[in-house]
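Collaboration report, partner site 2.

Our partner group contributed sequences for two proteins of shared interest, and the home lab folded both. The records are reproduced in the order in which they were received, starting with the first partner submission.
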Amino acid sequence: MGSQRGITIIETTVILSVLFILAGAMAPIVSESVNTARAVKARNDASMIAMGLINLQKDLGGDALSFGSAAAAVGQVLPLPEVLATQGAAPEVDGTAEVIEATLALPVLVPPGQDTAATRRAQRAALRAQRRKWREGRADALDDHLRTNRRGYRYRRPGEYGGWNGPYVSAEIQGDPWGKKYMINSQFLDGSASAADANGNPRKAVFVVSAGADGMIDTPFEQAIVDARAYGDDIAIRIQ
């Protein structure tokens, strides 16, 4: 019978080295696939929330959710809060100077006679203030409006067209795939088709926002509907 030889230490080392190299090569691919899957889920969740809010608004009527409407001013309706949020951890809003710089909406536009550095500092300060509004605004739980009527809207009665007729989402949304809240700047949701609100001011865009993989909201809270967009790696569905 021929002799049987085991694997030597050198051969074992070579095999392990090859396996480590293959694992290192595959890690970025796997990580990218995971992030892509999470981004897809976040967009799907945000779309579902957006549709729920749109249906809620249709059932209650545009004036019931109008920011600054005459009906809201005399207390005839229950306007939405400044922010609606799901379960989850609060996203970050204060980034580093580099992050702020990277997410500025426009290049430096320097008025005549004004210092460029001063203009850039003003832009940074304005963007920081806008991002902080996501966490500083008066907030309600999204579930209280879309899954339950804890907010106290008038229920739809048999034969009526208007009134709360939920639930508007099928299940509680715990948070985005990174464990952060989905947030909506809901105070601006008004259902109007015009470019101006009830007070004649430019209407503001409404977003359902996930802070994305970095856990930081980059998108400003207030943006006019004519040029609104998501910033940074935020995953956002625009309602209006």
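Second partner submission, folded after the first:
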Amino acid sequence: MLEQFRQDMAGVHSDVVSIMRELLHLTQQAVDALIESDVDAAQAIIDGDDRFDELTLGIEDRVLELIATQSPVARDLRFLQSMAFIAMYQERMADLACGIAKAARRTARKQVPQPLIDLIKAQANLVYRVIDASREALEKRDLELALKLPELDEPVDSLNKQFYRELGRLTDEDEIEAASKMVLSARYLERIADHCIDVGERLAYLITGERDLLEAAEAALPN
């Protein structure tokens, strides 16, 4: 019975890691659709959003079942709770990627200023790094890497501010309308990276039983 419980927990962990890996690909596809004005790719992402809801809700259901049937305590209970929280963050990340796809659909036939396209590419590459680092930290239960996530996220926030400066320089009404969708997508990317920090916080709590470790790491970054 105990061995089956261990296997079930390992299965939950493996599936949560797999979802994070899929989220990286989903975000890349959404950004590509935005940059390339690919309406079909954007619509495919939007149509597939329910699948991520099912995956993440499935994690929550399995966690609740294991808690109800196995009555875990201490570290095991902390592990299951953490997996449920991480699945919740993953569902939000998928929604944000879907939001980028919707922006791609709305800007497909509009002229987007090249500086904003270049910025979204640069920001997206930074966000991919944060997502993959959170996936690796989660997969390996690597506390050191989890604590580095705020440092990886910092340049994402800096680039996001540049979008608003570029938007403020525009005067053409059509460009402003298209650019506003691009700026919104930049905000979605920033939020995806923020949820990776949330994943890191839950992972740090899982490993150590202590809260606010990532907050302390973030506070230690230079202003």
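Feedback sent to the partner group on the second submission included the following. The domain at 2-219 is CATH 1.20.58.220 (Methane Monooxygenase Hydroxylase; Chain G, domain 1). Helices lie at 2-36, 39-47, 49-70, 74-107, 114-140, 143-169, 173-208, 213-219.
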